[in-house]
Amino acid sequence: MNAYPDNIFLVGLMGAGKSTVGRILAKRLGKLFIDSDHEIEKRCGVKIPIIFEMEGEDGFRKRESAVISDLASRTNIVLATGGGSVLLEENRDCLKAHGFIIYLRANPHELWLRTRHDKGRPLLNTADPQMKLKELFDVRDPIYQSIANVVIETGKPNVNQLTNHLVMQLELSS
After folding, report:
1. Does any domain span residue 110?
2. Does residue 85 contact residue 20 with C-beta atoms inside 8 Å?
3. pTM, full prediction
4. Which of 45, 72, 90, 146 has its Cβ near the most Cβ atoms within 10 Å?
5. Is residue 23 part of a domain?
6. What is the domain extent for residue 151?
7. What pLDDT digit, counting tens, does each position of 5-17 carry?
């Protein structure tokens, strides 16, 4: 039996597959899956676009930071983080201190194809969502790379192949 890390944190831009892969990975490893965005919505009682509208991105990031701090202190979880959670140093430090970080990396065009019909993404409610994804990628990719224990390209393989690859990476890392 392999000793997997207690906590596994998935980081990456919106549309990279953190929630989809996280659910399957948690099931495979016998861990609890948590999506930090869903947890924020549950605790606030409203959807994230409403939080952005009422409190702006700064207000949302404060709520996100509190949730990540709480969730990261748990054990035996797979946590899908929000795409922008890594922007705050305190979140990066918290994730690094409490678990194994996997960066699910996809190029901006692929992300746009996956998110273009999703109206629940406040940062993409812009005249040119594809350009916005490119800008977000340019800023966040180096941050994700700097904190990740493993970087996985999510472009080609299907979800099950991706999950198998992740499990192999975890086994090599343990």
Report:
1. yes
2. no
3. 0.90
4. 72
5. yes
6. 8-166
7. 799 999 999 888 8
Q: Give the orientation angle of helix 129-147 with respect to helix 108-115, to 10 degrees.
A: 120
Please give the full DSSP string across 149-167, using - where no structure is assigned: SEEEE-SSS-HHHHHHHHH
Structure tokens at 79: 């946590």
pLDDT digits (tens, 9 = 90+) for 129-166: 888 889 999 999 999 999 999 998 887 667 777 787 78
Amino acid residing at 98? H
CATH at residue 156: 3.40.50.300
| Residue in this structure with the two tokens 């690094």, named with its chain if needed | 96
| Residue 160 φ/ψ region, left for φ over 0, alpha for ψ in the -120 to 50 degree band, beta for the rest | alpha
Which residues are CB-contacts of 119 (< 8 A; sequence separation ≥ 6)? 125
